[in-house]
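TASK: fixed-backbone design
INPUT:
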């Protein structure tokens, strides 16, 4: 716990509110901020926290040492907040999972060092567990040339904000890292069977944040990230490939996002407490020798609440200027600071 003043931007959103409530339960009193006065003021009064209302054209970071940015889509919101944090000398953390956002923020390492600021994107489920798993695997095989990561979400669903963020990149297809470079590939580009701790599942490649972050964490030049799904879903995604560029047009994206607004906000407390996430990772060297590990974590949003606050506390206790991935700054064992994480070597 720390008495240092810090701010949650997007505290009126699904994940931001959950983080705010847990922060107060821990005895912290973050400043709650966002664009909606009605919801921010109501939540802040309930939690006895200071509140501010501003948009990203004019961020108010006065008296603040750190911002936890929870307002997506981060492809639109991260840069102005990072700009404001660097200008004000304020540490920046977020819960993004978007490849372009990671690439942009991690590319500002020199600026961050000059300003004495820590930039730490991806302190939630995207990408803490997979980033730490990648780091553990790299430690076990220092000469690895290939890294594969996968996850299986059992018994949970996406919030409106997460779904709308995913729609922002619906038209660009997939992504892998090949020989150190991020390469755009078709949706469901590669499909394989993966042995999770609860059994084997079919999985397809997705443009997950680790395509950006795991390279900086491990130096491994070839990276693919998979999500477990049904074979029918893979077939459906491949059939939809010709339509995705159309879905990616701005008017179509906005229409889809309006439809998403009608959905429930996200998994309820019972789901967050009972659902689990299953992860798998494998490294392989040039000789073809492979080594794999599995991990089990709490449900994704439940994980994010705890992980994000643990990262906030860690950065406030000990600052290190620069732009970092979670495992690079906090260590491969940071994932174990979240209760109910199981790691199988």
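OUTPUT:
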């Amino acid at each position: 716990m720390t008495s240092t003043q810090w701010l949650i931007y997007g505290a009126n959103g699904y994940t931001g509110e959950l983080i705010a409530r847990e922060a107060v339960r821990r005895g912290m009193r973050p400043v709650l901020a966002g664009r909606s006065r009605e919801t921010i003021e109501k939540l802040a009064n309930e939690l006895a926290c200071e509140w501010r209302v501003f948009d990203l054209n004019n961020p108010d970071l006065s008296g603040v040492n750190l911002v936890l940015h929870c307002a997506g889509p981060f492809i639109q919101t991260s840069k102005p907040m990072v700009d404001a944090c660097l200008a004000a000398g304020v540490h920046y953390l977020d819960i993004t999972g978007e490849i372009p956002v990671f690439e942009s923020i991690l590319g500002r390492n020199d600026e961050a060092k000059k300003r004495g600021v820590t930039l730490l994107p991806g302190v939630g489920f995207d990408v803490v567990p997979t980033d730490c798993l990648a780091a553990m695997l790299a430690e076990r095989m220092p000469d690895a040339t290939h890294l594969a990561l996968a996850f299986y979400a059992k018994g949970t669903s996406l919030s409106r904000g997460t779904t709308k963020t995913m729609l922002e990149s619906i038209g660009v297809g997939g992504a892998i890292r090949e020989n150190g470079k991020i390469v755009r590939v078709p949706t469901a580009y590669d499909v394989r069977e993966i042995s999770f701790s609860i059994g084997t599942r079919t999985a397809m490649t997705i443009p997950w944040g680790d395509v950006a972050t795991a390279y900086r964490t491990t130096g491994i030049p070839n990276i693919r990230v998979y999500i477990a799904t049904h074979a029918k879903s893979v077939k459906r995604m491949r059939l939809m490939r010709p339509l995705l560029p159309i879905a990616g047009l701005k008017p179509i994206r906005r229409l889809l996002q309006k439809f998403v607004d009608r959905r429930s906000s996200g998994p309820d407390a019972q789901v967050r407490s009972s659902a689990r996430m299953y992860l798998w990772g494998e490294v392989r060297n040039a000789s073809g020798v492979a080594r794999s590990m599995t991990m089990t974590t709490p449900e994704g949003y439940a994980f994010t609440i705890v992980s994000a606050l643990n990262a906030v506390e860690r950065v406030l206790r000990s600052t290190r200027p620069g732009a970092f991935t979670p495992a690079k700054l906090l260590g491969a064992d940071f994932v174990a600071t979240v209760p109910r994480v199981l790691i199988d070597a």
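COMMENT: The chain has a mean pLDDT of 90.
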